[in-house]
Amino acid sequence: MKLNKVSRRQFIQWSAAAASAALAAPTGLLAAEPALKRTAADQVTLGNTGIKLSRLGFGAGSNSGNVQRTLGHETFNKLIRYAYDQGITYFDTAQSYQTHTWIREAIKGLPREKLYIQTKISSPGADPLKAIDNFRKELDMDYVDSLLVHCATTHNWDDERKKVMDAVAEAQEKKWVRAKGVSCHSLPALHPPPRSRGSRFTWCASILKGPGWIRRKKIGMPRAMLPTSQGSWRN
Prior knowledge:
Layout: H1 8-24, E1 43-45, E2 52-54, E3 57-59, H2 66-71, H3 73-85, E4 90-92, H4 100-106, E5 116-121, H5 128-139, E6 144-152, H6 157-160, H7 162-173, E7 177-184, H8 187-190, H9 199-203, E8 206-209, E9 225-226
Parallel strand pairs: 3-4, 4-5, 5-6, 6-7, 7-8
Antiparallel strand pairs: 1-2, 8-9
Helix pairs in contact: 3-4, 5-7
């Protein structure tokens, strides 16, 4: 039995037509699944803590909180509510920003279980645990979702801030804090010496990359987190 001869040109034409049909067909073998689009309002998990928060956070500390306080309560409250209405549930404040009470007033009436409130401790005084308890009172909540050691700049910040770290760990045991971490404002703080590499970051559930060496002029500062050994959550 003789096979029909197919020219090289015909073979190329037929192959191209078949490939085009496969790509065009919804169920074609070569049809790729559309990539999921990530948005600022996506609810993501913080490492292996199980804590949910929006991918984008609203920072209440532009120029150490001066920008937010200059807005006045009414405008600040509207910004918080607008962010929440757009799906933002992660709100960042700090002891040094002096915006604890501002956040407290702005989130009144919102479901606490849907919010991720993060604050930071920098000047604890003689009793860091008492300072942390005072944060809860200023925010008018039983717990904060995340408490960070604020503005670490040296390579040995874990030695310098050991008293504060111990207080944060104790507060977590008391269930005043759900997750603990550090806010780094320099490269040395992010790159510890080999002798302690890993140990300080094992202690952390999150590392906040602070804009200490970058001037930002935004009303709501996006916050970026790095994964730690406790999980692989990414911004």
